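ARCHIVE CARD
CATEGORY: sequence design from structure
SOURCE FIELD: tokenized fold
FIELD CONTENT:
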């Protein structure tokens, strides 16, 4: 697995999957990037450069753990671009990783070609998603056998009276079967300090980020799942208003991992954007 040195000397790892033009991929979590796989087969169309964020996967734990903060992770993406020798790169982020991707794009607009945000988080642009929005979306799953227990846990979380995130896990997949349950286990963060420090004070500057993104004319893809409780379609529609050139896609029947729920559908939509 190839490695490179971050600006502070931390050794970071990345995977290379497939052939063709490079697409730098930033995972969410922060967690081991292995859960992305090859994004449902997107590697048949692009050479995926999949970064392990510092302190996750095969990347080293930094001496200064305050460097887990989201805005500081942007420096690691820039170091990766320099290491790869790319004057300009297409960039894909998933979940919390979209906060890194959007802040990178805001800081270095001329170094990003196409930007694909999958299951996008809106934290970097200061858009809050209400508990009511999540509960309304969850009602689409009311006929699922696991719904009563999961919805009760969700209601407690959104009302500030509970914290059983494990119970709400079924909402994040389009189908909650044994394979999805295995993927859920594999996608859990192992470095809790990295998670805790990711959104520490100073991690986001929403107003300046929004202004920079609004001034950028290069194409952006926002793709979320119909059932994505993390990135509800109604919130993603509002996020899309930030960008002057945006393609908004809601994948039917998908949750927060759309390449997992329907790989063919996800790859077709993503590849069409990247080719366009």
């Amino acid at each position: 697995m190839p490695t490179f040195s971050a600006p502070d000397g931390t050794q970071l790892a990345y995977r290379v999957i497939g052939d063709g033009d490079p697409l730098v991929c930033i995972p969410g979590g922060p967690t081991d990037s292995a859960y992305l796989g090859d994004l449902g087969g997107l590697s048949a169309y692009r050479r995926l450069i999949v970064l392990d964020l510092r302190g996750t996967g095969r990347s080293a734990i930094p001496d200064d753990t305050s460097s887990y903060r989201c805005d500081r992770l942007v420096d690691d993406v820039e170091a990766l671009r320099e290491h790869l020798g790319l004057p300009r790169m297409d960039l894909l982020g998933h979940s919390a990783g979209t906060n890194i991707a959007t802040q990178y794009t805001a800081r270095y607009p001329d170094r990003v070609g196409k930007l694909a945000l999958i299951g996008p988080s809106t934290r970097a642009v200061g858009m809050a998603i209400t508990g009511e929005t999540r509960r309304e979306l969850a009602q689409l799953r009311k006929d699922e056998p696991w719904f009563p227990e999961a919805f009760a846990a969700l209601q407690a979380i959104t009302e500030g009276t509970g914290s059983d995130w494990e119970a709400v896990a079924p909402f994040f997949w389009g189908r909650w079967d044994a394979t999805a349950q295995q993927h859920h286990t594999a996608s859990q963060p192992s470095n809790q300090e990295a998670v805790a420090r990711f959104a520490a004070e100073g991690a986001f500057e929403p107003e300046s980020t929004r202004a920079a993104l609004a001034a950028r004319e290069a194409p952006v893809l926002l793709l979320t799942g119909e059932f994505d409780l993390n990135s509800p379609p109604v919130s993603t529609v509002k996020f899309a208003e930030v960008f002057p050139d945006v393609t908004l896609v809601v994948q039917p029947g998908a949750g927060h991992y759309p390449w997992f729920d329907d790989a063919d559908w996800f790859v077709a939509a993503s590849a069409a954007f990247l080719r366009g």
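CARD ANNOTATION: Strands lie at 3-5, 11-17, 22-26, 47-51, 89-94, 112-118, 220-225, 246-251. The chain has a mean pLDDT of 96.
SHELF: design records, drawer C
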